[in-house]
Design goal:
Keywords: Transferase. This is glutathione transferase. Belongs to the GST superfamily. Sigma family. It holds the Pfam family GST_N. The chain has helices at about 15-25, 40-45, 65-75, 85-105, 115-140, 155-170, 180-190, 190-200; strands at about 5-10, 30-35, 55, 60-65. The chain folds into 2 domains: about 5-75 and about 195-200, Glutaredoxin, CATH 3.40.30; about 85-190, Glutathione S-transferase Yfyf (Class Pi), Chain A, domain 2, CATH 1.20.1050.10. It is an alpha+beta fold. The protein has a 4-stranded mixed sheet, covered by helices on one side.
Length: about 210
């Protein structure tokens, strides 16, 4: 019998969206529990380590988004064939984490001054995005259209879902100048079960 999944996260893409894509890819039914940022303070005490997302697997709660993505990826057969291949995937996923942390450090949600916010986004777009996307684009080219090991892995789904989130969050197209990444994005979002999820998912502000 397939496990029962319940995913708890904000009403947004963020670091929870890769888990939704991986569950969709696997064909797993899951309960998608969402709440607003305003509701978070009352919910936080009930969450392990006070961090989201949380994935409930047959009644057992687990947290940490990358650990959960790795778990779901391996469950779906999207891990490496050995420890070396797993390492190549992890390197890319950790690099994406560094990229996300650069965005997080801007603290855009706390900015009330729209001019300051726009200036921060502009600098991020001119300096940080090219730094990471150029490197990732070259890696995808070297790996014959994928982020690692020349084949589809959970790292590809993680990358494309994170780009999807960042593009929405800062209202910028990240990948048009990067042909290899753009091709990977098209490949992942065209996977029938992931496309079906994207088509039906709720609208969200981030």
């Amino acid at each position: 019998m397939s496990p029962k999944y319940k995913l708890t996260y904000f009403n947004g893409k963020g670091i929870g969206e890769s888990l939704r894509w991986l569950l969709a890819y696997s064909g797993e039914e899951f309960e998608d529990i969402r709440f607003t940022i305003e509701e978070w303070p009352s919910i936080k005490p009930t969450i392990p380590y006070g961090k989201l997302p949380v994935l409930d697997i047959d009644g057992k709660k687990a947290s940490q988004s990358v650990a959960l993505a790795r778990y779901l990826g391996k469950q779906a057969g999207l891990g490496g064939k050995d420890l070396w291949e797993d390492l190549q995937i992890d390197i890319i996923v950790d690099t994406i984490g560094d990229f996300r942390n650069e965005l997080k450090s801007l603290k855009l949600r706390q900015d009330k001054d729209e001019k300051v916010k726009a200036e921060k986004i502009e600098k991020f777009a001119k300096e940080i995005i090219p730094f990471y996307m150029n490197k990732l684009d070259a890696i995808v080219k070297e790996n014959h259209g994928y982020v690692a090991n020349g084949k589809l892995s959970w790292g590809d789904i993680y990358l494309v879902s994170m780009v999807d989130f960042v593009s929405t969050f800062i209202a910028r197209d990240l990948l048009t100048p990067y042909s290899n990444l753009a091709a990977l994005q098209k490949k992942i979002t065209s996977i029938p079960k992931i496309k079906a999820w994207i088509d039906k998912r709720p609208d969200s502000e981030f």
